[in-house]
Amino acid sequence: MNRRKSAENMTSNLNICLWMMGILNFITILFLVTTIVLTQNRIAFAQEARTFLEELAVAPGKPEVRLVIVLGSYLLICLLIWAKRDDTIQGTP
Fold first, then answer.
1. Given Cys at both, which of 22, 37, 44, 89 links 63, Cβ 3.0 to 4.6 Å?
2. pLDDT tens, residue by residue, 26-81
3. What whole-number distance in Å separates Cα of residue 9 and Cα of residue 71?
């Protein structure tokens, strides 16, 4: 009985760690995307975009598209992990 409670406690702790990792990853991704978007908008509104773009090797795309792509990829990965955890997706053994 004591081992069963210990195993349930360990499972509960692992679930808490999983959720915390997901939340921290989301915050990190949101911070990076926000920084990129704000930097691009600040350069565009400062009328220095031409000099900035001449120094770049690759021109950036629209900031809003990048935000949607990054957050959509994050949500897709979260859904795949959730489905794999619930055994609704058969993976390789």
1. 37
2. 899 889 888 988 887 887 777 777 777 777 766 666 767 877 888 888 889 888 88
3. 32
